[in-house]
Amino acid sequence: MERDEQEAGMLEGDEVFATAAAAVRADATDEDAWDQLEDLAAASQRPDEVGELYREILDRKLAPDAAALVGQRAVQFHEEWFREDSPNLVAVLQRVLAIDPSASEWAFQRLTVVFTVGERWDELLALYDREIAAAVDEHRRGSLLEEAAQTAKDFAGAPERAASYLQQLLPLRRGDKQLVSNLERLLERQERYADLVELWRDQLPSAKDERREVRQRI
């Protein structure tokens, strides 16, 4: 008798899940249906099906409001149920970054934490590269280049990439002597003398005495 009741309850839960899943497939912004699905996941301790459904919906071409809503809910659900370094959480965050411009900062920050904690430096720098290429705001682009350079130099053991980021940062930080000094040191250590000379030429000051000093260094 008890077993029959359990089986009946499972069948009823499956029916409720199927109905709610059909609802979000028809309208991704149906929050009542998403709430129902998450409640079922908690009651049955079966989060995988709901996580898979979130990822299925995110893979669609969504309207901006739907992308924002589903993206935030999907990330929160995966963070609640799965490990911080879960491949599915990483996939959700990367997809959210791709489809929802409004999520660029918070989703990016979460990914940087995941990759940093896991010491996944190549993936972290690739993430910075994508965000730098997509950045339209000059201030944000400068901040990203600065962070990427520090990560490449101090953690990833990639001084050549650090120098590349600083070279891209130079036009955004005219007159920043500390930036020039940091780039000089990196280029000298890598024996990139042609790049070093080019840097000095680009930094030639207007005053005659200072120009003479820089030319002597060259």
How would you sum up this structure, described in words?
This protein has 218 residues and is mainly alpha-helical. The protein has 12 helices and no strands. α4 packs antiparallel against α5 (87-99), α9 (159-169) packs antiparallel against α10 and α10 runs antiparallel to α11 (193-202).
Distance between the termini: 91 Å
Query: What percentage of the residues does DSSP assign to strands (E)?
Result: under 5%
Measured as a percent range, the helix fraction is over 70%
Name of the CATH class of the largest domain: Mainly Alpha
Structural class by secondary-structure content: mainly alpha
In CATH terms, what is the architecture of the largest domain? Alpha Horseshoe
Radius of gyration: 25 Å
Mean pLDDT: 89
Number of domains as seen in the coordinates: 2
Described by the principal axes of the CA atoms, the overall outline is elongated
The main sheet comes to:
none
Might you state the CATH topology name of the largest domain?
Serine Threonine Protein Phosphatase 5, Tetratricopeptide repeat
* Helix segment tally: 12
Question: What series of H and E elements makes up the topology?
Answer: HHHHHHHHHHHH
- Runs in which pLDDT lies below 50 for 5 or more consecutive residues are none
How many β strands by DSSP? 0
Q: What are the salient characteristics of this protein?
A:
Serine Threonine Protein Phosphatase 5, Tetratricopeptide repeat; 2 domains; 218 residues; single chain
Q: In a few lines, what is going on in this structure?
A:
This protein is mostly helical. The protein has helices at residues 2-26, 31-44, 47-58, 64-81, 87-99, 104-117, 121-134, 138-154, 159-169, 177-189, 193-202, 208-217.
